[in-house]
């Protein structure tokens, strides 16, 4: 998640990671997966969270209930002394049909240790998500409800929220996704003083065939953040 850009953790059974909710149909058998991405930059919800990064993931799902672990670690120096911050997210989710709901625990190794959960002494961030995939378009709402959330100008907790609308389509033999994301109210978490569009993006994927039975997905994404007046273009490979 917060590739700082953007960019939350849970107590009972640390719930997880983001950026991204589950949309799989309910199944009768346990399904598990493991993989990793290498990306030229860590851009999350219009925010720059780091440079070249390795991002592993693992998940298990049964009858619509899923648990996913996701991480990110920079593999290039960001200054003379250190590397990009490391991130470890856990997401517990449930989906049925197009409906999905989840709770994510984001954790970064830039402050208190992992087992610090105090309101003013934690780098965990807890986010709730609810969404619906209509097919031609998917709508998701995210709200930080605990942990290291942003604040308003007066110092009050912002309950930082984010809404995204994404539309997949095919063009020129590639799979594309167009997305717009915005925060509905003031929060320094997204650098917004009120309602603000912070992510306008267009991404495409293509399978790079290695052998007759093996290929690697290559993806590229351009992102514009009208709120911060910044733009990014990243490319990555999935394994």
TrEMBL record:
Annotated signal sequence range: 1-26
Per UniProt, which keywords does this protein have?
A: Signal
Protein name as catalogued: FrrB
């Amino acid at each position: 998640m917060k590739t700082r850009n953007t960019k939350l953790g849970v107590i009972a059974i640390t719930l997880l990671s983001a950026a991204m909710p589950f949309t799989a149909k309910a199944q009768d058998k346990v399904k598990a997966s493991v993989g990793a991405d290498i990306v030229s930059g860590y851009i999350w919800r219009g925010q720059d969270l780091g440079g070249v990064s390795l991002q592993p993931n693992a998940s298990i799902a049964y009858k619509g209930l899923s648990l996913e672990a996701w991480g990110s670690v920079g593999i290039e120096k960001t200054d003379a002394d250190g590397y990009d911050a490391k991130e470890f997210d856990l997401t517990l989710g449930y989906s049925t049909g197009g409906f999905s709901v989840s709770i994510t625990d984001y954790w970064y190794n830039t402050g208190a240790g992992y087992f610090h959960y105090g309101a003013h002494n934690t780098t965990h961030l807890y986010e709730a998500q609810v969404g619906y995939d209509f097919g031609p378009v998917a709508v998701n709402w995210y709200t930080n409800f605990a942990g290291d959330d942003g604040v308003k100008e007066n110092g009050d907790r912002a309950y930082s929220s984010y809404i995204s609308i994404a539309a997949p389509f095919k063009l020129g033999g590639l799979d594309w996704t167009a997305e717009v994301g915005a925060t509905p109210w003031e929060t320094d978490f997204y650098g917004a003083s009120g309602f603000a569009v912070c992510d306008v993006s267009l991404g495409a994927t293509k399978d790079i065939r290695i052998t007759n039975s093996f290929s690697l997905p290559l993806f590229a994404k351009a992102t514009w953040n009208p709120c911060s007046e910044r733009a990014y273009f990243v490319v990555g490979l999935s394994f």
